[in-house]
Amino acid sequence: MLSRVAESIYWMSRYIERAENVARFVDVNLHLILDLPVGVQAQWEPLVATTGDDEVFAEQYGEASREEVIRFLAFDAENPNSIVSCLRAGRENARSIRENISSEMWEQLNDAYLLVANTSEQWAMDEPHEFFREIKLASHLFMGLTDNIMSHSEAWHFSQLGRLIERADKTSRIVDVKYFILLPSIWDVNTPFDDIQWGALLHSASGFEMYRRTYGLISPNEVVAFLLLDREFPRSVLYCLARAEESLHAISGTPLETFSNPAEQRLGQLRAEFAYAQVKQVLATGLHEFLDAFQTKLNLVGADIHKTFFALRPVNGEPMDEETTDVGEV
Question: Using the 8-state DSSP alphabet, how is residue 2 labeled?
Answer without folding.
Answer: B
